[in-house]
Amino acid sequence: IKTLRMQLDRYASRNYTAPTTAQGLKALVSMPSGDPKPKRWKKLMDEVPLDPWGNEYVYRKPGKLKPEGYDLFSLGPDGTESDDDIGK
């Protein structure tokens, strides 16, 4: 999660905003096709990693927990959004 946050911050500093929920974490790997189009996109990762249980991380912008920014977390071993999620 720390690595993803670091790359999301790099993306935002280059493009003046983090990727949207629709663009997702894949925007760190390949140029997003939807708006807003990043002005200074650069590939920041070779692939988006999975969480320790083999699932995709949850990414939302704007966030539900952090409406001014984004949410990024793992659903944990149960795979459902709940109070025991990792990274909230």
Low-confidence stretches: none
Portion of residues in beta strands equals 5-15%
Helix content: 10-25%
Mean pLDDT: 94
The helix/strand class is: alpha+beta
Q: What keywords describe this structure?
A:
single chain; 88 residues; alpha+beta; two-stranded antiparallel sheet; globular
Molecular structure report:
- This protein has 88 residues and is of the alpha+beta class.
- Helix content is 16%, strand content 7%.
- A two-stranded antiparallel sheet has the order 1-2.
- The longest helix has 14 residues.
SSE topology:
Blueprint: H1 2-15, E1 58-60, E2 71-73
Antiparallel strand pairs: 1-2
What can be said about this structure in brief?
This protein has 88 residues and is of the alpha+beta class. It has one helix spanning 2-15; strands at residues 58-60, 71-73. The protein is globular.
